[in-house]
Specification:
The protein is an all-alpha fold. It is 89% helix and 0% strand. It has two domains: 15-222, no CATH class; 235-442, no CATH class.
Length: 442
C-alpha cells in the first residue's frame, strides 16, 4: 500500500499543480481586460469564451481515450501499439482542428445567433473568436499529446507543458492587451499564439521522451481493429461529454431565468466547485494512468489497490475543502463579491453546494478509473442516468416553483447518480477480473 501511495502522489502532485496553473491565466486575462476603457472587451471575451468552452470540451475524448489506451499498452508492454496510438490520436486531433478552421465562418454565425449580447459586446466577441480560433489545430493536437504523456505516466512533462502554456498566455496577454491596446482581439491572439507555441513545445517533449519506441509505421497506424477500438471509445466519451455540457449549461441558463441574484450567486459557487475539481482531477488523472497500466498488465489486484489509495486522498482533500467552506464561507464570499444580497443567497445555498462538492469529487475520481480501464460505455451510462433521472426532474421542478434550492438538488442528484453508477459498474468490472484471475490460478 505504501508503494502504491508513493506512485499515486508522484503522479497526482504534478497533475494538481498543472491544473492550478489554468485559473491563474484566466485571472490575468480578466484583470487586464477589466481595466480597459469600457467593459465591452471583457464581456465580449466572456461571451465568445463560452463558444470555445463548448467546442473544445466536446473534443475532450482526444485526451481521455488516449490516456486510457496508452496506459493499457504500456502495461501490456506493447511498444509498437504505444507508438501507433500517439500518431492515431495526434493526427485525429490536428485533423479535427483543421476542420474547425475550415468551418469557422459557420460556427461563428450559428454561435452568435444563439448567444445573447449587445451589438458592442457581440462585436468584441467576434474579434476574440476570429483571433483565438486560429489555434484550434494546436489545441486539439495538444489534447492528444497530453493524453499520451499521461498514459506513459509522464505527469511532470504535462506539468512543464502546462506551466509553459499558461506563462505564455500571461506574457502575451500583457503584450497584446496592456502594451499594444488590442483589447479582446489581443486576448484572442495571445491565447492562439500560446496554444501554437505550446503545441510545438509538446511535440519536443514527445520527441525527448520517445526512447526506444518504434518510429512511425503505416501498417500499425492503420490497424483496422485498433482504429475501430479508438473510434468506438471516442464516440462513447463524446456522448458523455455532450450530456455533461448540456447539464452544466442548462444549470446556468435556468439560474439566469430565476433572476440576476440567483445566476450571480450560482456563478460564485460554481467557481468554487471548479477550483476544488482541479485538485480532485489531479488524483483522477493519476488513477487513469496507474490503473490503466495495471489493467494492461493484467494485474487486477493492483488496480484495486490504486483505487483505494485514490479514494483515500480524494476523501481527505474533499473533507478539508468542505470543512474550510463551512468555517470560512461568509468571509470567503465577501471577498468574491461586494454585493450583500448575492452573498446572503450563496450562503443560504451552501448546504446544497457542499453536498454537490462531496458527490462530485467521487464522480470525477470514478470517471478516472473508467478512463484507465477504457470503459467508455460506463461513462456514457452514468451521465445519461445522472442527466435524465437526476438533473432533469429537479430542473423542471425548480422552474415550476422558481426555486434555486431545487435547482441545486438537481445538480447534486446529477453528480451523485454519476458517482454511484460509475462506482457500481467500474468496481464491479474490476472485481470480476480479480475473481477470474483467482479462479484461473486455483
Amino acid at each position: 500500500m505504501k508503494r502504491a501511495l508513493r506512485q499515486h502522489l508522484h503522479l497526482a502532485v504534478p497533475n494538481v499543480l498543472s491544473n492550478l496553473t489554468v485559473p491563474l491565466a484566466g485571472l490575468v486575462d480578466t484583470v487586464l481586460l477589466g481595466h480597459q476603457e469600457t467593459a465591452d472587451p471583457l464581456s465580449g471575451v466572456a461571451l465568445a469564451g463560452a463558444i470555445f468552452s463548448f467546442l473544445y470540451w466536446g473534443f475532450a475524448f482526444l485526451r481521455m481515450s488516449t490516456t486510457g489506451l496508452t496506459s493499457n499498452s504500456v502495461g501490456a508492454d506493447e511498444e509498437e501499439e504505444t507508438s501507433a496510438l500517439f500518431f492515431r490520436s495526434f493526427l485525429l486531433g490536428v485533423g479535427l482542428g483543421l476542420l474547425i478552421l475550415l468551418c469557422r465562418p459557420v460556427i461563428e454565425w450559428v454561435s452568435f445567433q444563439l448567444l445573447q449580447g449587445s451589438p458592442e459586446v457581440e462585436a468584441q466577441g467576434a474579434l476574440y473568436f476570429r483571433a483565438r480560433v486560429l489555434g484550434a489545430p494546436a489545441v486539439l493536437g495538444l489534447m492528444a499529446i497530453n493524453g499520451w504523456l499521461l498514459g506513459r505516466l509522464l505527469s511532470r512533462h504535462v506539468l512543464l507543458l502546462s506551466v509553459v502554456q499558461n506563462f505564455l498566455i500571461v506574457a502575451l496577454d500583457y503584450l497584446f492587451i496592456w502594451r499594444l491596446g488590442w483589447g479582446a482581439q489581443g486576448a484572442g491572439y495571445a491565447t492562439a499564439a500560446s496554444d501554437i507555441l505550446s503545441f510545438l513545445f509538446g511535440l519536443f517533449l514527445v520527441w525527448k521522451s520517445w526512447g526506444r519506441l518504434p518510429r512511425f509505421s503505416w501498417p500499425s497506424l492503420a490497424n483496422p481493429e485498433k482504429l475501430a477500438s479508438l473510434m468506438s471509445l471516442n464516440g462513447q466519451i463524446f456522448v458523455r461529454s455532450f450530456f455533461l455540457i448540456l447539464t452544466v449549461t442548462s444549470f446556468t441558463n435556468i439560474s439566469a431565468w430565476l433572476g440576476e441574484e440567483v445566476v450571480a450567486a450560482n456563478a460564485v459557487l460554481l467557481q468554487l466547485l471548479l477550483f476544488c475539481a482541479y485538485f480532485v482531477d489531479g488524483y483522477a488523472y493519476a488513477l487513469e494512468s496507474l490503473a490503466g497500466k495495471a489493467a494492461g498488465a493484467q494485474r487486477w489486484g493492483e488496480v484495486t489497490t490504486q483505487l483505494r489509495v485514490a479514494l483515500g486522498t480524494t476523501t481527505i482533500t474533499t473533507l478539508l475543502f468542505a470543512a474550510g467552506f463551512t468555517l470560512f464561507a461568509k468571509s470567503l464570499l465577501a471577498r468574491m463579491t461586494a454585493h450583500q444580497n448575492i452573498n446572503e443567497l450563496a450562503f443560504h445555498l451552501l448546504p446544497y453546494f457542499l453536498a454537490a462538492l462531496v458527490a462530485g469529487s467521487y464522480a470525477y475520481l470514478y470517471d478516472g478509473l473508467c478512463i484507465g480501464l477504457t470503459r467508455g460505455t460506463d461513462m456514457r451510462t452514468s451521465v445519461l442516468t445522472g442527466t435524465l433521472l437526476g438533473f432533469l426532474p429537479f430542473a423542471l421542478w425548480s422552474i415550476a416553483s422558481r426555486s434555486p434550492e431545487r435547482l441545486w438538488m438537481g445538480y447534486f442528484a446529477f453528480v451523485a447518480l454519476r458517482a454511484v453508477v460509475l462506482a457500481y459498474l467500474g468496481e464491479g468490472f474490476v472485481r470480476r477480473k480479480v475473481m477470474e484471475q483467482q479462479c484461473s490460478v486455483t
